[in-house]
Amino acid sequence: MFLISPELQDILVLWFYRSGHFLVNNVIDDPAWLALIFC
Fold first, then answer.
1. Predicted pLDDT at 14
2. Rounded CA gap, 29 and 8, in Å?
């Protein structure tokens, strides 16, 4: 188990979702990446 304070955990989750949203909009938007991921 990770011993992380709730405040730090919230920040990490927020950054995780922000980076994931960025990747979805900029990287996975390219059809070639979709082909690599799903094939």
1. 93
2. 31
